[in-house]
Amino acid sequence: MATDTSASAPPEHDAIRKPKPQARTLQRREDVLRAAMSVFGQRGYNKGALVEVAEQAGMTHAGVLHHFGSKEALLVAMLQYRDGEEAAGVPGRAQTEGPAFLGHMLDTVEENTGRPGVVQTYTVLSAESVTEGHPAQGYFRDRLDGLRDKIAGVLAEVTGRDADESEVRDDASALIALMDGLQVQWLLDRDAVDMPRIVEKVMDELVDRLTTRHPAPPFPRPQD
Amino acid sequence: MATDTSASAPPEHDAIRKPKPQARTLQRREDVLRAAMSVFGQRGYNKGALVEVAEQAGMTHAGVLHHFGSKEALLVAMLQYRDGEEAAGVPGRAQTEGPAFLGHMLDTVEENTGRPGVVQTYTVLSAESVTEGHPAQGYFRDRLDGLRDKIAGVLAEVTGRDADESEVRDDASALIALMDGLQVQWLLDRDAVDMPRIVEKVMDELVDRLTTRHPAPPFPRPQD
DNA sequence: TCAAATTTACTTATAGGTCAGTAAGTTGAT
DNA sequence: ATCAACTTACTGACCTATAAGTAAATTTGA
């Protein structure tokens, strides 16, 4: 929250050569954030201890508190950092357009297969966030909401439907749910599910169905 | 509040009375288990405190420990109790056959809409269980595995396919993932998703596809 | 030398588990 | 039927970790 970074204006020549105190600080903060991802991912937020985060970042837990103020603030910072990192990972980044976005999602699923830590961080924290007064509740609510909008939009664009159609929105929700749900199964048993294969197939079917049965849903819904 | 046990003097020589003191004990244990479901559901296992469980069951935390030995054992007992309860809720119960099972699943989704507590208990604990050394890990692994088998079997039966086909198994995994994933979204925002509607539609599509394209998958997979 | 970074040393909570004791049964021999 | 011997179901007090947060001292770097 409070961007207490009242620090001086960042010197534009902050090359890698001269590690100014603040340049170095940024690196340390990042170390802490990475450590937080690892610890909160492996243990969850509640059980994850600041001492362990600190250790992995090479300092004491008081040092971590110095940088982030509180455990809660650290979690929030970590979540934002993770978003930024994810966005930065993609070349075209930002808002990938149309079908490319679906492809990008699939790529992510494939990549995730090689980094259970990241998957676990997301899975554990998102589920934990539904508990009473969890600090990440707003974050995940917003994230899911935004993702749903985004996917519905892309789906509409790809299939020539309207993003407001309940069928399209339902499919967006379903796609997100599928990916999240698969992660839990996969984390509990890596060999039990082939995430990329399943997601790809579902995406194909879904786009196909939406495209083929163009204007209206195929069956009348008695209840509604 | 505590020792109201002295109240109704149990008629010792009155025929079909519960012979053992365990009759009452069983009830108390059940109280504790229900309390555990509520507390662990709302706070998760790690943050859920024994004192709170105890309070809700009308005893002290030492009393809870007397019955269950440890917090971990309590969780395991709770999970088993939950299974038993769920099974008991269904009349025909045990192994519902064929298409009836899919209907039963859908009914459950519909019922769940009215009891967020139960949904939350499952959602939070299953995700939490993927963390290092979590006591419920085995439980959820087994549960998901069994459910996958069951659904694959039912799907095979309904559509005339083989339960060993990877497509059928994938669909079983996907269906479970869908339901679990939707729960997270729903718990974070009740109005964001209509769980029963989505699950019903997906089930329909899924059965339809599996039935229509009978023997073999429709398209050759270039990469594999 | 000044300020930020970081440590050391505490404080304050919380929480699981142990333990001795007690009240209310239960059982068995007389 | 009664009473001693024993068991069960607890409670209250206590112990021990663990963990977050704070304050003051110390180091480090420009």
UniProtKB/TrEMBL annotation, chains A, B:
HTH tetR-type domain: residues covered: 26-86
Assigned keywords, A-Z: DNA-binding, Repressor, Transcription, Transcription regulation
Keyword Cytoplasm carried by entry: no
Name of this chain's protein: TetR/AcrR family transcriptional regulator
Signal peptide residue numbers: none
DNA-binding region(s), chain positions: 49-68
Residue ranges of the region described as Disordered: 1-23
Pfam families for the chain: TetR_C_6 (PF13977), TetR_N (PF00440)
